[in-house]
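new request in #modeling-help
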Amino acid sequence: MRRRVVITGLGAVTPLGVGAEALYSRWAAGDCGILDGAGACTDFEPSELLSVKEMRRLDRFSQFALVAAGEAVADAGWDGALPYDPMRVGCIIATGIGGIQTIELQHDVLRDRGPARMSPLGIPAQMSNAAAAAVSMKFGLKGQMYSVVSACSSGAHAIGCALRMIQYDDADAVVVGGAEATLTPFGFGSFNSMQALSPTGISRPFDARRDGFVMGEGAGVLVLEEAGAAAARGAKVLGEVTGYGSTSDAYHLTAPEPSGDAATRAIELALNDARIGPDEVDYVNAHGTSTQLNDAAETAALKRALGEARARKVPVSSTKSAVGHLLGAAGAVEAVATVKTLSTRMIPPTVGYEVPDPDCDLDYVPGEARPLVMSNGHPPVAISNSFAFGGHNVTLVFRGAES
Amino acid sequence: MATVTAEQVEARVVETLASFGPDADQITRGSTFEELDIDSLDLVELAQVVEDDYGVVLKGDDMKELKTVGDAIDLIVSRAD
């Protein structure tokens, strides 16, 4: 029998504040953490949360990851000693871009003062596996440890890898998430040149007025444990990861493939992996970026994968309406928000959604949060989509805890 | 560089090491880098500061021999003469 994987801890650093509860409760209240066209983590004060050494050695994306991981590990009741053989605890922290602030800073030093004055921390702080390494060192996690890089689906891919790691008995638990800190001149300049960012600075997924995404920063981390082991130690179970599906468009560097075949297939694969049908999906946490192309393509893929009738019945909302697009952290932060949604049985809205678009004709939970209706009387089920530059498509399936 | 005193070097070294993590009042001439959690990456940064301030070039082989804060101060002062 396949090993089951439960969620026992959640942590987040987002534009809505430090903490998974700040993310979920403020989003559910209809708050938006975007200011002046960016979702910055203005409440994140490194000197209050990290040691001097951690602050100096870690790029901002790794700082977010370390703080979110600390919250998740404490939430799982792991404070102090690990409940497992450390060699059986994995760690995957994804990022889309990595330590770009470090690169920009050290490139200035290189240009202005020469290579001999570059910090010895330049490469180790910017490398994409730096956040995973920092989390592993801080909490003594000695199983498989690495990063996953797939742009805006990085965080979701990481959770898929962690799910398989436990299912295949390569680990009993995994600390998994994603982190990103790209609100830099290079980040804004490059995304602006692509005309990917919203010129109005408003993230309103699925709304007819949507005009691009708003870049955000932050991290989301989850603690996953094998269900039997979690039960044996009396862990509080927050939910379960039951399915994972992933495909690639093989089409274009940045544009989604118009037919949506591969995105549709990712959703179908995830449902098959979870051994459920479309009628059992109670909520969709959409990728919903607020770009013209993504939101229309995602809507089309949902209709094909779930069937028109079911797709029209299932509430769909986008976390990005409240925090912007956290790129490589998005899949993990949205997983945290989805698990909280399933736990509270209350679906946060797509904040700011008002004007329907004929190409986006599903129920995007306008206005305010609403109670989650369970179609089958069992713990509710949600899917969370992540798509990315490069043509990545990832869908995760989550089941809420027994009430 | 002849005007550099051991006291000036000590103050600069302590200030620099303190910026890497340990409390300044923890740092004495007798403190070992190990007990201060100062590692090879920190020492490279210290060497960069020393070269900027005193024109003293410390290479990897020089640093390997250093065990205490006093060792570093003495080496810098001797090279700065």
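bot summary: Residues 60-75 of chain A form the longest helix (16 residues).
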